[in-house]
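quick one, 628 residues, struct below
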Amino acid sequence: MDGTCLGFRDWKGVSIMCGIVGYFGKRNASEILVDGLRRMEYRGYDSAGVACLYDGQIGVVKNPGKIKALREKVDASELDILHKSTQGIGHTRWATHGLPNEINAHPHLDASGHFVMVHNGIIENYKQIKAGLAQQGIACVSDTDSEVLIQLIAYCYKDNLESAVSEALKKVKGTYGIVVMTDHEPGKLVAARCGSPIVIGLGKDETVIASDASAIIPHTRDAIYLEDFDMAVVTADGVQMFDLQHAPISREVTAMEWDEDAAEKGDYAHFMLKEIFEQPVAIRNAIRGRLDFDMGTAVLSGLDFSPRDAAQIGRVLVVGCGTSMHAGMVGEYAFEEMAGIPAEVEQAAEFRYRNPIVTPQDLVVAISQSGETADTLAAVREAKHKGAIVAGLCNVVGSTIARETGRGVYLHAGPEIGVASTKAFTCQVAVMLMMALKIARTRRLPRHEGEKLSRWIERLPDLVEKVLGENEAIKAVAQKYADHENAFFIGRGYLFPVALEGALKLKEISYIHAEGYHAAELKHGPIALLSENTPVVALLNNIPGKDKTLGNAEECKARKAPVITVVSEGDEGVADGFDDMIVIPDCPPCIAPIPTAVALQLLAYHIAAARGCEIDQPRNLAKSVTVE
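---
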């Protein structure tokens, strides 16, 4: 094969949001693989498959659709390999290249049937590799970019699997998290990563490899997190680590914090509803031990800067995508209002491509629930390259952004399985408020004001509990609007990002076309779309700008649009003349986004439930968005 057609590595920071799992031990592999895929199904649910190795043979079962269908197919299979093997790999897919059918599902075999692989990521030069393989008479049968990699590994194989993997990976452009095995070397799994997470769980007489801790937690708490260009070889003797030049390396064994029960649905109808109701506990965990009431400040040791360092920050740049970006927008208001420091929010995907102006006095805060979001990770690397102070705000301990920033704050929200983010968002906002408080106290915010704000942050779990107590009332409102196909959300100030987030939640899980607007923007075009079939959710909390938002809501009503108001307790009179009302506790403007967001989460959930939607696994979406 002409190696020049294969290109050279060019790290892009892109990846795909699938779930992979591998097992080597003494128990039935297929059972552990399928259960691991079930726990990671939120990462992708277009198709799934497993491959097991036993008595010198590889057996593969794949199926389009959900993990439940795969489990039934595995259980019904007459392949002894699947029921006797103690070694195997599995995959649940979010399709990029090729339709979600059985042929394109992973695991992928090479042309000889002796090598098999699961892959997360994108092979950017797969067409060149495919053409080079074709010149050698090696034909691919699927439409995926992934298959070409296992064909290339098989082509590179001489007598050692890890050497073949290393040689092949040196020829690809793009990203990968892979696990490979071959019947030429039974008793061995080889894993590698570049831009797509791989965690290796070290159990008693067994090893579990996965792209997500949730698949490992039932078996062990001890884990190794692979870094980019790491390769791990798993055998009965343990785990050996190498770089792509096959030089031995070492990685620290860390303890995973998540509780296995936290990743189960319990008595709730959906993970999303469970996670909405977990928010008082999640927020309490996020703020526990981080408030200094005597000094009226926040204690965020992970940021690793002193009051003097904080006072010298010239600007705060927040980068994130989707829900995380909305949390950052709330932070922007808080940084500027409390600390008097310029703040900007940047869509992470734009950050590195537009060559932003960044200085060593800038604090860049990267927000990502998973800590693996490709666009946000790319922004982190660009900010570091430009000399900024970079901090991560992540939920997943040991995630790539957490490791690469080296400073930041963990949310401690616990696992979030529902694709639509709920408790991660409210914890992100709570942490942003504490970050703003910490910096503000080094500047113009007096201690007594800091003490007041810290007391309000402490009360956040109780405020959320009160909103959850309105669940049935919100459900009754939701059922009135479940048959609409369009909706607007409007707000001002701290509630403008909440309007965006409320619209995002509704469109994500109910498939209703929903848009969030700053209330003042209505007259600049969107009002043309209003009719009796377009409900408007008006955030009329008791904060500055309420009267102007009220006027905008009146304008919507004049266009015959139904108006659902969100109002502060004790201020219900502002809802007079409108169609429906949701009441939240009265609180300061900077605190209001969290209880308001919880109310909108419940509204979206109950509308989606009334429409019979797949709430935890909405179409075309997956939890960990690691594709640019």
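The radius of gyration is 25 Å.
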